[in-house]
Here is the input.
Amino acid sequence: MLLSMKDINKSFSGVSVLRDASLEVAPGEVMALIGQNGAGKSTMIKILTGAYRKDSGSIQFDGTQVDFSAPAGAQAAGIATVYQELNLAPHRTVAENIFLSREPRRWGLLDRRRMRAEASRVLARFKLELDVDRPLEDFSAATRQMVAIARGVTQNARLVIMDEPTSSLDEREVGVLFDTIRTLKADGVSTLFVSHRLSELYAVCDRVTIMRDGRTIGQHPMSEISRVELVRSMLGRELTAFATRAKDEARGSDLPVFLHAEDLHAGTRVRGVSLQVRRGEIAGLAGLLGAGRTETARLIFGADPRDGGRVAVEGRETSYREPVDAIRDGIGLVSEDRKVEGIVPELSVRENMTLAILPKLRVGGVVDRTRERAIVDRFIKALGVKCSSPEQPIRELSGGNQQKVLLARWLCTDPNLLIVDEPTRGIDVGAKAEILKLLRELADDGLSVLMISSELEELMAAADHVTVLSDGQSVAVLAADELSEERLMTEMAHQNEIGSEGARAA
Amino acid sequence: MSALDTAPSSTNGGPVERRLNARQATLRFLGRYGTLLVFASLLLFNVVFTPNFVAWNTLTLNLTQVATVVIVAMGMTLVIATGGIDLSVGSVMAIAGALAPLIFLDRIVPIPSHTLGVALALTLPLLAAALCGWFNGFLITRYRIQPIVATLVLFIAGRGIAQTFTNSELQTFNEPSFQFIGKGFVWGVPVQVILMALVVLATHYLVRRTALGRQILAVGGNEKAARLSGIDAAGVKRLIYVISGVLAGIAGMVVVAINNASDAARVGTLMELDAIAAVAVGGTLLSGGRANVLGTVLGAFVLQLVRTTLLANGVPDAAALVVKAALIIAAVWLQSRAERI
Here is the structure.
């Protein structure tokens, strides 16, 4: 074994978070590590990389007992970590980021020429051709992620830990990443792969370690465990969620159109998008990363200016200049990136929840606390938000609970249309199912939902119809009975030949 | 929240009730009550060692000295809560302080009625101060200039403007009805102390109870999220800089009233630093998203008390500055440690 963690225990101020947990990775193996939020995966990884110290247990890496006291030690020993939230310097160039803190030097000065050459060489291994002298911030989120991974693998690592590496990558880039993992594997480098997307595990991993409640529940070769078993052992119960929809009911043409967008244009990212959402339906919006999904949502919501096209709400043409204009028409947007555009971390659950309804809670400029409290209590209960009290800072909540608070932020305004951008990203399987179920119930009650998602299963399970974007244009509208993984991928790859070839090798 | 970021929490994303060990608990306690502790110990020290400390005079003297700092620091707390900073407050004080005597001394235009002159002298400078604040906010929101740079403009130019008004001359005057704001008493309490109390109460109420207060914290905590929730982030910021300007204007006029004279070169010098120091010592994060109004008041009191203590015990004012700096470092260090628990 390259890595063998045994009987690891860890508690924080008396609360036990790891109980005799174990983890093994063989040389050249791709090991998946899965579990719900709070299962202990993160603590396990942090102990391995020296961010936390274990209370007891043993860690053997590459034949020797180790106990890293700081991430630098783990790095030096050959453990590279690619974090989900990138710890890169956006203003520095690509090359500088790849070699951050390990810059090649000549006579004590930066050897820029070598740095550039090596950076290009490393990126070429990922089939990426970038101008390595441009600042990182010039590139898309996906490219930045690839640079982070490139940085990780240039550290001559024996083990690369990837935490949700694919969460901001499109299908093609996921394919490239998987190729990279396979290249690493061929070189004898192991990968520890953390992901919430099950299909990815089957595509690239050799074995899977499942954690639940601080314990290691099982370790199986991927080929010997079915998805259902995987999910079941992760949750410790049967998952019934995705099956709760009532898609068969005749839904559609008889319902009045709530939102109609036609031929939207904005910059280079949106170049002719048309879509419509009827009252009480969930309309899906699919497309590869960079297809213009988020941008389209922001145009409709008035968050970005549009260059052309028209948006009509209940037949009335609109020209929103700021989100507040759209909000007045009963539109809400739950954005893709909870941390960057969703939560206000320092504020409490209560304050976060009532942010959008604030104008209606205002009596002579003062917040009506009684009504506020009533609303907050009602939605915490209705959505099953797990928090110690409404006054708990939202940053302390898990991703799934934060997302519920953000949904409640809009639901309490009693909206007509809710735009949800990747509503289940970075959320554990249980909460995911709950949120999809909630959206379905709300739609049944008459709420219109425009749902952007990269997860095809999710769209197929939840949407009444799906508009597919490709390269900034709407290329197809698929009705519920036409939805299939095949069909969606074909449409997404439309006019975008590279899109199809790297699709998940599942 | 990333998987790796997930706090050591209970299972299944349940409520995070964290118990802290002794060291963490101490840090958190100090982060929360450290300033209060320092304040209490300073008081105690003075009561025991400083002669004549327990006296009505000492109290009013200290309160009058700290009043202007507190008034300015209230605006600064709001500005910092939005994630900004206002370096121009000292210069705005100079502008308001220079304008007021010019008005009632009829140096700008002859004003027929004396009462009207004083009334205008009490209001027009505030309008000018508001204008300065609006200009700061305009630069910051319209041209997206960083607050520290945008307010540096008036920090530099403002004092110049004030000196131009007065031809760089000392304006002395004797105008009891105007000087009331700096020298008057109501029921034995100095007027500027009452002003200070009113400003503090209003600011506290604003932050705690009003929708605007919530919006300030949201804008400072996450501007993008605030905008997407329908908050006019730019408008909130402009308003806050106007408020900061007006409060600086009030402080400027109080200072001039106390001195019977306005010296545009000196009114409000270093006030921006005193105000920022009060905010920092008071426990408001300089990165925005929080506003600890009463903390700022306490911070200003501590800094004032340090000065009094050292002066009363024969330590020169210059040395007090070093102690002040040490306090600021200690406060910021404590906050950053307490933050990471």
Notes: Chain A touches chain B through 70 residues (CB under 8 Å). The first helix of chain A runs from residue 41 to 48. Chain A has three domains: 3-238, 240-330+417-428+448-506, 338-414. Chain A has 19 helices and 24 strands.
